[in-house]
Write a structure and sequence with these properties.
By secondary structure, this protein is an alpha+beta fold. The chain contains 10 helices and 28 strands. A hairpin with a 2-residue loop joins strand 8 and strand 9. The radius of gyration is 53 Å and the shape is rod-shaped.
Length: 537
């Protein structure tokens, strides 16, 4: 906002011109007519200051209303406006006090409450306390000069006006040169130019305005200074009020945004994400620079791409430049880093370090921080089975050297699938079981213990998979007292009645033999098991 929003009215121009003419006439003679003219000007100025004050009160009221609607948005500007009001009221009060002291020094006296006064009568002034002072010597030339020049009151006033002016200028944006120039003109306290035609005498601002001037003229001048201060206040608070909306960006698109600290969370840690509403102005896009390079924009967003050619930690920074509603670019800096790691993958068998034919071999497969759902596993010499969120390998053929069985991992990253690595595996047959009776595969056994057993079992020792063998036939050899052996067959895993009858005839120290043992596995294969021998105790 500049002076064009608070132009000088024709009335103010007329008042200023009248003041200049009347001041010049003082050099000739302080006639009664001149004093009367000053009274008229002062009355008009007094009316003007009330009008400006009323206008400013309306602006302060608007600040209060805006603040009630949106305290966060208005707080900064209302605080500044309150500071302007405080400084202005203080300086205006100081000038009122100066007027009172000038009138008292010229013989002025308090008027009682019962006296009826004509409104805006320049023969009287009102104190801030509400008392009324009668001006007795309007043409007094000595007292004003004594106070303002000899006692340096004009210099003190000048310094206060300069401080007030600098305070107001500090409230406005440096780019608003028009408003700055308006304030400099309204609160100008510079010394007048030397006029060679008038003898070239140099005068200060203080002498020019207050030396050898009649009291009424000095009072009129102080009233004019109060108006200038009020007008300056009006310009600045109107400017501050306009900044409530002018400094706010205009957006026409909203979208929910979620930024997670990490999309991968280790068990025991916590997942943390920031959720916010992002605003966007589709009518204009910001300028985004990364490492000094202007980014390509897509949908109002800058797209930063960097080839990850080698591992390590990489820093990247930049700035976002956005044009405000006032046409000024504001910059927002940012600084981030990212890590590039070599592809890391793991394929592990959870039970054995080889694959076995005929069983589902459980495995785990992982690729660094890639989510499980973005990983694909394939293999040669077999197939991958997924069941209940777990992976199993089911090989086709035996591969003792591990040359034909390869498990490969692929990861979907950035919308594209990439090969991450592979591992080779050996494939072996499920080992042969061991024949057992009563949980042992030979050695000493009592006749009583043998008589309560039901048959021969085929046991896989130290094998973690759920795989079973069942004996389908065996031959029992019993040695008699002469040292001869008789054989009795069974076509299952159970002892026949004839075999059990033989157990009752066994003598201590004799032997039994279990031979020709065959077992059928869960995979349908038949194995020939080693014979077992027991000595009767």
């Amino acid at each position: 906002m500049g002076a064009r929003n608070c132009p000088e009215t024709p009335r103010q121009k007329m008042i200023n011109m009248m003041y200049i003419v009347l001041t010049a006439m003082l050099a000739l003679n302080v006639a009664a007519e001149v004093l009367e003219a000053f009274r008229v000007v002062d009355a008009s100025l007094t009316h003007t200051i009330k009008t400006v004050d009323m206008k400013n009160s309306q602006v302060y009221g608007s600040f209060e209303q805006k603040y009630a609607e949106n305290p966060t948005r208005v707080q900064e500007w209302k605080t500044k406006a309150d500071e302007v009001k405080e400084k202005t009221d203080s300086l205006i009060s100081q000038i009122w006090n100066l007027k009172e002291e000038l009138v008292y020094s010229s013989g002025g006296a308090l008027i009682g409450d019962g006296v009826k006064l004509r409104p805006d009568d320049p023969s009287f002034i009102n104190e801030l306390t509400g008392d009324t002072i009668k001006i007795k010597k309007e043409d007094d030339l000595n007292s004003p000069s004594e106070m303002m020049i000899t006692r340096n009151m004009a210099e003190y006033l000048k310094n206060d006006i300069i401080g007030y002016k600098e305070f107001l200028i500090g409230m406005i944006n440096e780019n608003d040169s028009e408003l700055r120039e308006t304030l400099l003109q309204e609160l100008d306290t510079s010394d007048p130019r030397v006029k060679s035609r008038e003898g070239g005498e140099r005068k200060s601002w203080e002498v020019q305005h207050f030396d050898s001037k009649p009291l009424i003229a000095v009072l009129v001048l102080l009233t004019k200074i109060q108006i200038d201060i009020k007008n300056a206040e009006s310009h600045v608070i109107s400017y501050l009020y306009s900044q409530i909306d002018a400094s706010s960006f205009k957006f026409n698109s909203l979208a929910a945004q979620v930024i997670a600290d990490s999309k991968v969370v280790i068990q025991g840690d916590e997942f943390v994400a920031q959720i916010f509403l992002a605003a966007e102005d589709t009518a204009q896009s910001p300028e985004i620079y990364v490492n000094g390079q202007l980014l390509e924009m897509e949908g109002g967003k800058g797209i930063y791409r960097a080839a990850a050619t080698e591992p390590g930690t990489f820093n990247w920074s930049g700035v976002i430049r956005y044009r405000t509603p006032e046409g000024i670019f504001q910059e927002y800096e940012f600084d981030h880093e990212y890590q590039v790691t070599e592809p890391s993958y793991t394929v592990a068998a959870t039970k054995m370090n080889v694959f076995y034919l005929g069983v589902d071999n459980p495995i785990t497969a992982s690729i660094g921080s890639v989510p499980k759902e973005n990983i694909r596993v394939e293999m040669t010499n077999g197939r991958i089975i997924e069941r209940n969120d777990s992976l199993f390998v089911n090989p086709n053929d035996e591969d003792i050297q591990g040359r034909n069985t390869v498990v490969s991992l692929f990861a979907t990253v950035g919308g594209a699938e990439r090969f991450m690595g592979s591992t080779e595996w050996r494939v072996k047959m499920v080992p042969d079981p061991v024949a057992q009776i009563a949980g042992i595969s030979g050695g000493d056994i009592t006749r009583a213990r043998l008589q309560v057993e039901d048959g021969v079992a085929a046991v896989l020792e130290d094998f973690d998979f759920d795989f079973k063998y069942t004996v389908t036939q065996f031959v029992l050899g019993v040695q008699n007292a002469e040292g001869y052996t008789s054989n009795f067959e069974s076509n299952s895993n159970r002892f026949t009645q004839e075999q059990k009858n033989q157990f009752g005839r066994l003598a201590i120290g004799s032997y039994i033999f279990i031979d020709n043992i065959k077992a059928l596995g869960d995979d349908g294969s038949t194995r020939d098991l080693d014979p077992i021998v027991f000595k009767i105790q």
